Amino acid sequence: MATAIIMPRQGQSVESCIIGKWHKQEGDSVSEGDLLFTYETDKATFDEAAKVSGTLIAVFFEEGDDIPVLTNVCVIGEPGEDVSEFDPREAKEVQEEKPATAEAVAAPAAAVQTAAVEAAAAPAGDLPEAISPRARGLAERAGVDLRFAQPTGPKGRVIERDVQKLIDEGRLVTQAAGAAHDTGIAGTGIGGRVGVADLTAAPAASAAAASTTPALAIDAGPESYVEKHTNIRKVIARSMQASLSQMAQLTLNSSFDATDIMALRKRLKAAGEKGLNSELGFTLAEKVPTLNDIILYAASRVLPKHPGCNAHYDDEKLTIFNRVHMGVAVDTPRGLMVPTVFNSDLMSLSQLSSAVKEAVTACQSGTISPDALQGGTFTVTNLGTLDVESFTPVINPPQTCILGVCGITTKVREVNGELKTYPSMGLSLTFDHRAIDGAPAARFLKDLKTVLENFSLLLMQ
Question: Hey, which bits of 223-362 come out as E strands?
């Protein structure tokens, strides 16, 4: 029995998703739990696995297609089953995709694959008979010579990735030169395009080559390669550009003595090694918080005293929040993500530490809900583990502030006439000068510094 696989809904705010990669192709055998395709929202990337076993008998969309949630994406069933009732595309498009004869409908998948291989092996010079609209549009915009196309789509169809491969290989031609030239001509135009000048110079170059001993060819590998932007990267780029172009951002840099928080972590680790655990009331000794957890906790306690820093700004108003919803910047293979730890000012240090770890794990594994990637009122980003001593973090709109956490360096100060060293940790606060003036922002940073330098006392409150 044919079973349709739909585009899942990831969070209430998500209306559509983009297919990033197909892991199975039409005609492949599928077992329950096999990975079918990867899809992206504007915040995260997810994998969709097969819920039934069978054969992937229909694929309705290509990589890069933006698909509304709850729409049929593909069908798993038995070869030869009718899938027309599941096809979400328009009737005209469905008709164009159907084979011309009943015999073609009954053709096994192996025959289709053989036809695709034969089409791929065809010599350059023949324009492809079947090409998807997305592939044709990309080819026209980039000036691609489609005679070199090797189709990898269903039924020998040229799809977008085939055109992108030609772009990567430099198979380009200007509109003036057209496609009526020898495929062996090397282009000298922009990006290696074959131009009119190359067509004129080709006969002379051929004659010269005939009387000259060719030089030894050296294969140095490709000069460059192209990575297509993911949807997440596009969203990050738009958000960061909008942040810098629409805000009056200013960064204040400070530092604090990290002696107390480092000594606290050392004591907690030693306590855990002695067997002090949560059953005895030593929760922090069982799961020692990181330095970043400590800074998040301190910031959540200081922010309520500085309402302008825990707010959203737009051209009409400043929205101040009574609770602290802490955004935590996370570096993932898919790009930067900022999950929100809601009501962090009401959490204990151990609760906050656990919540942050869960959010980071979900981001890095790609299972984070899009609903958990919004609603933050203040963000903390940490580059200290990468030995960064000072930087300018970019605000996450519409928030008014973002705190950058830097690495620990050794500094010297005078104590009773003697020079003594101490561990210093840097803090970089970027604020929106439209919403906050410099003095209030500096006061928040100063109060945060004071709390961090006396963190052990804070935990006693």
Answer: 249-257, 311-313, 318-320, 326-328, 330-332, 335-337, 340-341
